[in-house]
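[Meeting: bench + compute handoff]

Bench side (C.D.) handed over the final construct sequence. Compute side (W.E.) agreed to return the predicted structure before the next meeting so the bench team could plan truncations. Sequence as handed over:
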Amino acid sequence: MAAPKRGRNASAQSRPGRSLALILIAIVALTGGMFWSGHTTPRLGIDLAGGTSITLRAVAEPGKGSAINKTNMDTAVDIMNRRVNGLGVSEAEVQTQGNANIIVNIPKGTNSKEARDQVGTTAKLYFRPVIATEVSGAAATASPSPSASSSASGGDKATDKATDKATDKTNTSSPDSSASPSVSSTSQGRAVTDALKADATPSGGTSGSPSGSPPASASTSPETSKLQAQYAALDCTKKKARADAGKGTSATDPVVACGQNSQGQWQKYVLGPAEVDGTDVKKADAVLNTTTGAGWTVTMDFTGKGSKKFADITGKLAQNQSPQNQFAIVLDGDVVSDPFVKQALTGGSAEISGNFDQDSAQSLANMLSYGALPLTFKEDSVTSVTAALGGEQLHAGLIAGAIGLALVVLYLLIFYRGLSVIAIPSLLVSAILTYVIMALLGPTINFALNLPAVCGAIVAIGITADSFIVYFERVRDEIREGRTLRPAVERAWPRARRTILVSDFVSFLAAAVLFIVTVGKVQGFAFTLGLTTVLDVVVVFLFTKPLMTLLARRKFFANGHKWSGLDPKALGAKPPLRRTRRPSPPAAGPVDPKEA
């Protein structure tokens, strides 16, 4: 029984090379991925890179204090995210703080005044009739306008559910894209002119491009010519073009706009004057419609005044052909949906159905609701952080980290001597993994290294060094008990491993709780602390312990050299335990009578 046990121990001790090879492969792979992605430095937060930080406070309308709730605040954050992204800002951060505040961090390189104007105003939601539309971009110059990705149906809800379901099903089917008018690059001007004329005809008049229309040059007003030029030049695949589309146009004028269709393609539109305002929407909800099999739908309830407006516009649109039987739901100049109608919706409510899943239906419902949110936002503070100030903070943080690391290394050299050959490379491996992973997390999850995150990395130096010290002291305790180094290394590991895991679990739990219950920059500290704690476990298990096993086979450490940090004499070790034999009994023989 003893021989197999010794064999298993010998086998376990002969595998440290595998662990070292594994962590080396991981480092090479992650470093290669970092250089391959082109992001060789961590993405810096606003406090290090510079920029503008805006604090907005939600203010409810009189008598509607309950409007300041999590749902409305999250919707406001979503809208503001769309706005700052429309400015071409890909690294902006918009998040709630507490119950009634929103923090908007916009990095350097952005017009801070324009950004403040964008995020500080109430969202503008309009329902506009579609006059002309087509897929935007060079690849779609001669393609027909695709059909709407969703359809509007409904009227009075109770009536719809109680009456002909087949009619509902017909109303929710998507129109055939072949029925949509084709708008090529050579006929855009005439098509837009005719469409504008058709849109201006009274209800019941001819729609679409009436035959025999006069030439565009003979009847086109300056405003229409300008709109034609804007529509022809609009390329919605470009972020700046999308942000500038329709800028400065009032709700009572036709406008060009951009939106995405159900295939994810960018679509450009010519839209008529706004017929229904977002404040006319009383409520919007995402609903799973199992009655007609329409799946996820978005239901809208209108105010009394909004009901009449919506009935009027849907009555006009229902007499037209695609795409002029569609209305565009426009939020802050972006078309978020373009359903078509086949009948006047006069019941004060409507249902938008189509290719929705739960998330997309909820998103559209939130946007529709935001137009009627009884909230405004007031600027509480605007802080500008210059790149120079951010650079000074980063420089000071790096100096603090370097001093802390130097003190840890000095401590290891003085108290553990040769064992620092294990601890210092372990710290280096942990630092490499932390840096590479932070660089990769920037483009992956938009992680930004701010000053609190740098503090978290500095604190992690002490946590990592503490794990090494726990293991070294366990080994030293075994040597004090009189054991030689190789058995001491293996016997010390189980107890040290348990202590390290418990300690790191407590640190990780604290970081996780801090990350969940806080917002803003403090989350950067918590995230970095949690990340480095996990990496500490990885490094100790896959690098520190295997390296200790290998070096225990070297005479310098195995013989307890005085500079190895494992000198038995310096540690006050007991003499090796030896088993003593009892004295043998005297041999049997004749007994002397005198002794008897």
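W.E. noted at the follow-up: Residues 15-44+386-571 form a domain with the Multidrug efflux transporter AcrB transmembrane fold fold (CATH 1.20.1640.10). C.D. will use this when planning the next construct.
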